[in-house]
Structures are given as structure tokens and as C-alpha cells.
Amino acid sequence: MEWPMKQVYEKLLQHFGPQHWWPGQSPFEVAVGAILTQNTNWRNVERAIGNLKAAGKLGPKAIASTPIEQLSELIRPAGYYRQKAKRLQNFARWLLQRYEGSIERMAEQDCQQLREELLALSGIGPETADSILLYAAGKLSFVVDAYTLRVAVRHGWVEPEVSYEELKQYFEERLPAELDIYNEMHALLVQVGKQFCQRRRPLCDSCPLRPVLPATGPYEPWSE
DNA sequence: TGCCAGGCCGGGT
DNA sequence: ACCCGGCATGGC
């Protein structure tokens, strides 16, 4: 079987190895991480989650009922902590009311329907929604982020002005409908982005994708 | 030391 | 329908 991005995928897998993002944690913890990592380094998120765990507050009921001041202090290392405390409570209270606090129950819902429900929550935008759908609920929803965009633009796959939904569709059309591929591909794109497509710098010559690219167009300098 | 990190919201054009 | 300022900590 062949699919359009297979060569890219295997090149990345060979270079970086399996990323297995968000493994072995509860689905709710994954969702919390998705909110906390908004525009934030993952290391800071780990501290915040560690604080929540140590305080026994890593569940929907605890998040929903803990006073906002206390909650925000616990997640402080993740930055934007007052906003994010609110966003966590929004999500937790919605999950309790709508799905009995159960991500598994939530995951019984149809993907598109669920995506709309998540997007309707204040504090959950397209990337956070797709991260929750893919990594917590096990839905086939490809995740696009700043790195995904940068990698795709630097390699001339898409125009810099492409919208979130368009870029998401670009990948979904070129990948097989498999959770593991969606999962790994997104994580691998982040890795290659971090290492070879940094901001304010031209595409690195040693990018592992260089040799396999058909060079569909001129490498755009670094407009995003 | 400034710049950046796995965004999103609300108000303004 | 975009555009922008604000939000905040920790690492390099």
C-alpha cells in the first residue's frame, strides 16, 4: 500500500525514532496537558501536572471544585496560569455535566460532533480540540500546530497563508486513516520543526527531509 | 539577555 | 472575516 506522505513519514521515523507521545497516562491527564501546553514549553507543563498529581487534583471533580486561586497556584509553572485555571475548570465542568466526567464516555461521541462541542468551550481552540480528540479520545483527527505549519511552509508544501482547517485537511488527505500514524506523524513533525525549522532562520541544510523532497517549489525563506 | 515555547480570547476594524 | 494586544513562567 502506498500513500503520499509515506516517504516523509518513514524518513522522520528513521531519523527520530518513535515518539509515542502522551503514553501510559490517563486520558483526562492528556486533556489537561493539551490545555496547559498552549503556547507553552512542555517541561513547564510537566511541573504543573506534577503539582496537580501531588495535590490529588488530577481528576474532573477535583479540577471542577477546587477554588480557582488554589488551582491557579498549582499550575503556575505552566504560565498563563490564571487563564488556564479557568479553562481547566470550564473543561472539567463540561465533561462532568455532559459525559459524567468520563473521557471514555466522551469518546463514544461522533468525531465531528465532539469536535464542535469542544470548540464551543471557552479556552479550547482547534489545536487543543484536535489534541484531545486524537491523544485522549482516540479519534482520527490530525493535529496541526505552529511547527506543522512551519515545516510545511519551509518545504514548499503549502502557502504560508493556509488556514488551520486547510492544513489539517492537507495532511489528512495524504495519510492513511490510522491512529498510530496520525499520532506519530504529528509528534515527528514537531521534532523536525524544533530541530531544523526554527523561527527566524532559513531551513537547515541537514534537515532529514531534504533528500526525499520533490522540491515542488522554491523554499520560501522563512515567512510564516 | 532577550526571545521563545506543542494557543486562545475578546475587542476593534 | 481578519488583526492585534494580552496573557506568564522557565530555559537557553
Number of strands: 0
How large, in whole angstroms, is the Cα Rg?
A: 18 Å
Kindly report how far apart the N and C termini lie.
34 Å
Note the overall shape.
globular
The DSSP helix count reads: 12
Mean pLDDT: 92
Structural class category? mainly alpha
Order of helices and strands: HHHHHHHHHHHH
| Beta-strand percent range | under 5%
Helix fraction bin: 55-70%
Description:
By secondary structure, the chain is mainly alpha-helical. The protein is built from 12 helices and no strands. It has helices spanning 6-16, 27-36, 42-54, 60-65, 68-74, 81-99, 103-106, 111-119, 126-136, 146-154, 164-174, 179-196. α1 (6-16) crosses α12 and α5 (68-74) packs across α6. It binds a DNA duplex (13 and 12 nucleotides) through α2, α3, α6, α9 and α10.
Summary of the model, kept short:
The protein has helices at residues 6-16, 27-36, 42-54, 60-65, 68-74, 81-99, 103-106, 111-119, 126-136, 146-154, 164-174, 179-196. The protein has 224 residues and is mainly α.
Salient structural properties:
224 residues; mainly alpha; 57% helix; disordered C terminus; DNA-binding
List the helices and strands and how they pair.
Blueprint: H1 6-16, H2 27-36, H3 42-54, H4 60-65, H5 68-74, H6 81-99, H7 103-106, H8 111-119, H9 126-136, H10 146-154, H11 164-174, H12 179-196
Helix pairs in contact: 1-12, 2-3, 2-9, 5-6, 8-9, 10-12
The chain binds a DNA duplex (13 and 12 nucleotides) through helix 2, helix 3, helix 6, helix 9 and helix 10.
